[in-house]
Design a protein that fits this description.
Chain A: Keywords: ATP-binding, Nucleotide-binding, Transport. Chain A: It comes from Schumannella soli. The complex is a heterodimer. Chain A is α/β, with parallel strands linked by helices. Chain A contains 9 helices and 14 strands. In chain A, helix 2 packs across helix 3. Chain B is mainly alpha-helical. Chain B folds into 2 domains: 251 residues, no CATH class; 60 residues, no CATH class. In chain B, strands 2-1-3-4 form a 4-stranded mixed sheet. In chain B, helix 1 crosses helix 8. The longest helix of chain B has 35 residues. Classes of the chains: A alpha/beta, B mainly alpha. Chains A and B meet through helix 2, helix 3 and helix 5 of A and helix 1, helix 6 and helix 7 of B.
């Protein structure tokens, strides 16, 4: 488990990070979401040791990280970059070898990733001759080619079409299943929602929420239910502990003060006619995000 | 990582799951150097410029050989007793002529360059008859010159001194400038493409810089060696071996000084290159280094006949590679002098490497504006 604790970073008078802390658990995909300038990239650069924090620690399985430990990390920087004139395979082999793989092992890893990411026909192309989407995949391959034990990816999906997103998601999930903690930032909330097991929400340099996606949803959804019945739902307004949010003949959306009030509504609805739908409304990540960062 | 990383096995993946141990500093530097060399060898600009240099050297040798051959013996017509006087004179092809009129006819027809006829009124008892200009060498040969005694018969003449200074100077200067700029550019390329963030996460900055300096140095030596080999082969094939014998030991010293001097400059270029993030800005930090290369070069080319200046220059690390071999060639230096200059050079190279790698490490990840000198040099 990667543990980030109490990170502080200032640029002059401006605090960029204030007491940033969260966990990235192995075997799980952790989404790191926040608006532009919220501190995502700064946090990731500090985790990677590319930037020094003013205070705070980063530990892996309880041991504080030193320079050498981070070699086992896979990193995809926010601003993409590979050698423009190097061929794709050659580039990946070089990076794997810098991490200690021998020539044969490096080649094997590179070939495998190139195939997994659907870059097979491009393996001998120079990076600068690849399309932007393919450059992005190459960048992901560069972060994975040394079989890292921790993955830190800054906006890995930006610039990818939906099919490419699925390909990349498949490769990353593979790694997570193999027990690698995966932290990735994104502001494409729909992808994050579909993909992450855990979520860390940052705004203005502070962590606003973190935990498993399911529990966050639970916490922030409240008791909002929707009801669709055969009878007019006007009676709901008179029901104690209930606040109607939307109303249209037999359909209504309401917030309840307590579980008991919810059950009372259900009983009342059944007694008044057929109940076609009675369900708790899950709030989308986008809604939770907007709420949390305010 | 605990057991969590090794299980469950990822489907469809071959080989070990874990990354092997990090490469040693030397291995990492070797990998970086290897990439640097391959990238350069693939650059058309580099291959073409090397080709042009080779052609220039070979062309120069062949041209000087042809010019030498064309000069050939001067053809002269000799009349009467002039024939005996010309016996034993070198570089002349003598044609006998019956009398002055016959000789003049040969000159007019262009069959000979000049005619030599007896003339009692001349101090040398000879008159040279030529069309519009008498061959200078012939005039010199037949002139009466005072006896000359040389106290230092080994001293080389001014022209040769200048040529050798120029040759050492140009080779060192052009290698330092082209390879130096290339190193700076390749450092900036890594910053501007952000590859550097991935590289630094993989290997220490020291290994990166060492690899860059090493790779460029190997290429520079390779290029110089190729040119030198072409020169030696060319001179040997065309039979101009005297120059080779003259240059022997100074040339060896030149190579030794070149190696260390180049490493020194390469690390300065790498360090100052790391201070900027865009190719357009390279000049703003590498200019001082460029000056360090240019000033001693011009000094030694312009003051090559000033013994004091050359002596000083032969000890200054930036110009020792030009100055010391020149003094050795001229026979001005004692046997121990190149050794001391070499120690000075190696010591300064080590100091510069230490400072350079500090600048490099401090500047590498600072993107955007040019890194200030005080930040770059900070511990």
């Amino acid at each position: 488990m990667l543990e980030v604790r109490g990170l502080q970073k200032r640029y002059g008078a401006r605090a960029v990070l204030d007491d940033v802390g969260f966990d990235v658990v192995e075997g799980r995909m952790t989404g790191f979401v926040g608006g532009n300038g919220a501190g995502k990239t700064t946090t990731m650069r500090i985790i990677l040791g590319v930037l020094d924090a003013d205070a705070g620690t980063v530990a892996l399985d309880g041991a504080l990280l030193g320079g050498g430990d981070r070699r086992r990390f896979g990193y995809m920087p926010e601003e993409r970059g590979l050698y423009p004139k190097m061929k794709l395979t050659e580039q990946l082999v070089y990076l794997a070898r810098l991490h200690g793989f021998d020539a044969a092992g490096a080649k094997r890893n590179a070939d495998e990733l190139i195939d997994q990411l659907g870059l097979g026909e491009r393996r001998d192309d120079e990076i600068e001759k690849l399309s932007l989407g393919n450059q992005q995949r190459a960048q992901i391959a560069a972060a994975l080619v040394h079989r890292p034990e921790v993955l830190i990816l800054d906006e890995p999906f930006s610039g990818l079409d939906p099919i490419a997103v699925d390909t990349v998601v498949g490769v990353l999930k593979d790694r997570a299943l193999a027990g690698v903690p995966v932290l990735f930032s994104s502001h494409q909330l729909d992808i994050v929602e579909r993909l992450c097991d855990d979520l860390v929400i940052i705004a203005g340099g502070t962590i606003r929420a973190s935990g498993s996606t399911a529990s966050l949803r639970e916490q922030h959804s409240g008791l909002r239910y929707e009801l669709l019945g055969s009878a007019d739902a006007g009676w709901l307004r008179e029901q104690p502990g209930i606040h109607v949010a939307e109303f249209d003949a037999g359909f209504a959306v309401f917030d309840a003060d307590s579980e008991a009030a919810v059950q009372a509504v259900l009983r009342e609805a059944v007694s008044r006619g057929d109940v076609l739908t009675f369900a708790r409304q899950q709030r989308s990540l986008a809604q939770i995000f907007t709420e949390v960062i305010q | 990582m605990s057991t969590a990383t090794s299980s469950p096995a990822r489907p469809g993946s071959a080989g070990p799951d874990r990354a092997p141990a990090s490469p040693s500093l030397a291995q990492a530097a070797g990998l970086v150097a290897g990439r640097e060399i391959r990238a350069r060898l693939r650059s058309k600009a580099f291959l073409i410029s090397t080709g042009i240099l080779l052609l220039l050297v070979l062309g120069g040798i062949i041209a000087s050989n042809l010019i030498g051959a064309n000069a050939g013996p001067t053809k002269v017509a000799a009349v009467g007793q002039a024939q005996q006087l010309l016996d034993g004179q070198k570089g002349l092809a003598v044609t006998d002529a019956a009398d002055r009129a016959a000789a003049e006819k040969l000159v007019r027809s262009g069959e000979v360059d000049a005619a030599i006829v007896p003339d009692d009124t001349s101090p040398t008892k000879l008159t040279i008859v030529a069309n519009d200009e008498a061959p200078g060498s012939l005039v010199q040969q037949l002139s009466v010159t005072p006896k000359v005694t040389l106290l230092d018969p080994d001293a080389k003449d001014g022209n040769l001194r200048y040529l050798v200074a120029l040759a050492f100077g140009i080779v060192f200067f052009s290698a330092a400038m082209t390879f130096g700029q290339t190193i700076a550019q390749s450092v900036v390329e890594e910053k501007s493409t952000r590859v550097i963030e991935i590289l630094v996460a993989a290997v220490p900055a020291r290994a990166l810089m060492a690899g860059k300096v090493l790779g460029s140095s190997v290429l520079a030596f390779g290029q110089i060696a190729l040119i030198a080999a072409a020169g030696v082969v060319g001179l040997t094939v065309t039979g101009q071996t005297e120059i080779l014998q003259l240059l022997g030991a100074p040339l060896v010293w030149f190579v030794v000084f070149f190696i260390f001097g180049f490493v020194l400059l390469a690390s300065l270029f790498a360090a100052t290159g790391a201070m900027v993030s865009r190719q357009e800005d390279i000049g703003s930090t590498t200019t001082p280094v460029t000056m360090l290369v240019m000033l001693p070069y011009f000094a030694i080319v312009f003051f090559n006949s000033n013994a004091l200046v050359v002596s000083v220059m032969s000890y200054v690390p930036f110009s020792a590679a030009i100055g010391m071999p020149l003094r050795l060639f001229l026979g001005d230096a004692q046997w121990w002098e190149p050794l001391i200059a070499l120690v000075v050079l190696i010591a300064s190279t080590l100091v510069v490497l230490a400072i350079g790698s500090r600048i490099y490490e401090n500047s590498l990840l600072k993107l955007g504006a040019r890194v200030e000198w005080k930040d770059a040099l900070r511990k």
